[in-house]
C-alpha cells in the first residue's frame, strides 16, 4: 500500500506560535498536512508590511512555513532572524522574503506556494482568505475596538472581557483550497493559539465553520496551556469552548485535548504577575457542552515560557486519532 495513503490527512486551523509549534511535531507523522492560517494580524512586522506594501500579513504564514520546512539549519536561522537596528528594526527576514515573493509572483497565494517549494515543506500552508480583513471586538462595557493589536492593548487597559469579535468586511469568502482541505480531512484540529485573535477569525470566514461542522473527520480542540494576558484572563477550558461555539454558531468538535502537567513554581509565578495562569480544565462544564476531555502531560517550559511540547502533543493527537477516528487508516 502507498505509504501516503496510510497517513491521515490533517487540517490545523489557527495562527501565532501555537499553531506552528504543533506543526513541528505533526510533520513527523504525516505528509498530508495542511495549515489554514488567519489573515487578521495587523501588529509588529506583519502590520508594517501590510500597511506599507498593501500585502496580507505574512507573519503567521511564515511561522508555519518555517515549522514545516525541511532545510539546512542555517536557512531556518536566516528566516527567523530579526533585524535589531535601523529602519528594519524588529522585522523578520522571513517576512521580507515572503514580501519579495508576493511582489514577484503577483499574488500572496502564489508567493506562499513558491516559498513552500524553496523550503521543501512537508504539507502545505494556506491563508484562510485572500480578502483584506480587519478584526473588530466588542467589550462587555460596549466599547468597540478595530484592529487585532489594538484589541489586546484595550483589554489590558480596561480589564473588560471580550464579548464578541467580528471581521470587517463581514463574512469574507474563504479560499477555495482551504474549504476543500477541510472537506477532504480525516482529522481537523483547532488551536492551540490565541482564542479571539488567532482561532476565531478563521471561523468568521464564510464557509469555514460550515465545512468543519459538516465534516465526518475526527475534530479536536487543543486547549492552550495557559490563559493569555490581554485576551483570556480568568477563562476556564469551557469558557474557551463556549466562545468558539458561540462565534461559529454550531458545535464544531467532540474532544478537547489538554495538558495535565503543572507549571513549575517559577514559571507559574511569572505568568501570575502578568495576570495569566495555567488554564483550569473544568471537565464537568465541558461535558455539559457535549465535549469529552482528554488530559495528558505535554508541557515544555525549557525556555521559561509555558507551551506544548511539540513531539508529545503530536504523539497524543495521533494516539487519539488512532483510537477515535472513524476512518481508522493510521497505523
Average pLDDT, all residues: 94
Q: How far apart lie the N and C ends?
A: 12 Å
What fraction strand?
15-25%
| SS content category | alpha/beta
What is the assigned CATH homologous superfamily of the largest domain? Answer: CofD-like domains
**Strand segment tally:** 12
Helix content: 40-55%
Oligomer: single chain
> Biggest sheet: strands, sense, closure?
7 strands, parallel
CATH class of the largest domain: Alpha Beta
What is the H/E string?
HEHEHHHHHEEEHEHEHHEHEHHEEEH
User: What is the alpha-carbon Rg in Å?
Assistant: 19 Å
**What is the CATH architecture term of the largest domain?**
3-Layer(aba) Sandwich
Q: What count of structural domains? A: 2
Write out the strand line-up for the largest beta sheet, numbering strands in chain order.
3-2-1-7-8-9-10
CATH-defined topology of the largest domain: Rossmann fold
Fold and architecture overview:
It is a single chain. The protein is α/β, with parallel strands linked by helices and about 325 residues long. It folds into two domains: about 190 residues, Rossmann fold; about 90 residues, no CATH class. It is about 45% helix and about 15% strand. The chain is built from 15 helices and twelve strands. It has a seven-stranded parallel β-sheet with strand order 3-2-1-7-8-9-10, sandwiched between helices. The chain has a three-stranded antiparallel β-sheet with strand order 5-4-6, with helices on one face. Helix 2 runs parallel beside helix 4 and helix 10 packs parallel to helix 12. The longest helix is centred in the last third of the chain and has 15 residues. It starts with a helix and ends in a 7-residue tail after the last helix. The model has no long low-confidence stretch (mean pLDDT about 95).
